[in-house]
Amino acid sequence: MRQRLGKVRTTAAVAVTWGVLVGGGAVGTTRAAAADDTLTRSSPVRLAPGVTYTEFRMPLPRGIVHGHLLTVDLAAPEVSVDLLHPAAVAARAPVSELAGARDAVGAVNGDFFNISEAQHPGVAATGSAVGPEVSSGRDLKGPVPDGQRFGPALPPGATTKDVLGIGYDHRARLDRLALRGTVRTPGSAWPLRGLNQYALPEGGIGAYTARWGQVSRERAVCGTDTDRGAGCDTDTAEVTIRGGRVAETAGRPGAGEIEPGAVVLVGREEGARRLRTLHVGERVRISSRLVGRLPGRLRCAVGGFPVLRHGRPADGLDTAAVTMRTSAGIADRGRTLFLMALDGEKEQHQTGLTVRELADLMARLGARDAMDLDGGGSTTFVTRDQDGAPQVRNHPTDGKERPVANAVGVLSAD
Predict the structure, then answer these.
(1) Most CB atoms closer than 10 Å: which of 28, 42, 95, 323?
(2) Average pLDDT over the chain, rounded to whole?
(3) Rounded to whole angstroms, what are the CA distances from 19 to 22, 26, 59, 106, 225?
(4) pLDDT per residue over 345-382, tens digit each?
């Protein structure tokens, strides 16, 4: 990885011409605002019709903020944006691998995810994302309860339902996606509270499909709605539905592949008690969909939390923790999408940002709305090189790519 990153740095240095930081106004430098000459950008490099790449630098008293930016014209007919993900919801992969599988022009890492289970010894970490996932118009998973999320504390008013979405109208937006679903039997109807989620709400029933993968579903009944580290529930049940009928029942969540067309229902507390009333052979019908607050169907959606709305930073953003950040921004009433990741190269006097500083940066880069995506060691920025291979542009802080739950990818038909 070190060698590959070095190659990318050389390629970028050849392709990019930097302007001067102060005075002069050299060709290739764009200032973020007339009153602020501290943020400088490289000359834009066209990667595909409607897609450009730039680097930027911004000095702070504690060091240099160095970042990478994709600017995407969503109105360009050749361009589309989609959620990139591994073959299973409960799986992880490097961004470069996800981008290569879809021949993406560029990509950044996406949502926070279930990265570890130190609080529940013996329970497997699923690698599954926190928030909703929609890819190519398909609902992959629902949001976990707010108290079960990984990542920094949510600012006031934010929720795991928050998403960056790209609609079939070729516009980006910040939205919220809630799961609406029902489990119906001949004599009853119960709310479905989960879809391929690593954590279920207390008292709920969740559905797991073939998209979940092979990882154990035990994590779904650990923790509570307000305490991720709480113990694992023992009042549980699992029911397998095949061909619209109950095929198997069990007292604990299981593991292993779920065959296509089958659905495994997992319940805890009241949800478990309801599932225990079902009998082998009984008819069961399951329906589910992710519903947004705004009109229009989403082609893709990824979780995170808003840091900028209508050009103003969200209230209560953290001003203390400094780390490398990944973000998606929106401008031009949804017609322009920005994908940004900071560089974590060591021994270059580089620094990260607080969440509040991230909001300011995205505004300087031109965004009216912006979302914080997973950061730290997950921060990864990938573009396609001249040979069509995915290349990591930034230096991940771990010295190599971290496998992640999903990524936001820019695709081109050109």
Answers:
(1) 95
(2) 92
(3) 9, 5, 14, 24, 50
(4) 887 789 999 999 999 999 999 999 999 999 999 999 99
Distance CA 406, CA 189 (A): 33
CA distance 140 to 88: 9
Q: Which residues contact 106 (CB under 8 A, 6 or more apart)?
A: 47, 51, 53, 70, 99, 339, 381, 382, 383, 384, 409, 410
Query: What tokens appear for 238 in the block?
Result: 């699992």
Check residue 34 and give its pLDDT: 36
Instruction: Quick: pLDDT tens for 172-204.
Output: 999 999 999 999 999 999 999 999 999 999 999
Specify burial of residue 259 (Cβ count, 10 A radius: 0-12, 13-18, 19+). Answer: exposed
Q: How many helices (H) and strands (E) does the chain have?
A: 4, 26
DSSP 96-147: HHHHHHTT-SEEEE---B----TTSTTPPP---BSS-EEETTEEEE-PPPGG
Whole-number Cα distances in Å, 353 to 55, 168, 266, 328, 357: 16, 33, 40, 15, 6
Both structure tokens of 137 = 């118009």
Q: How many CB atoms lie within 10 A of CB 27?
A: 8
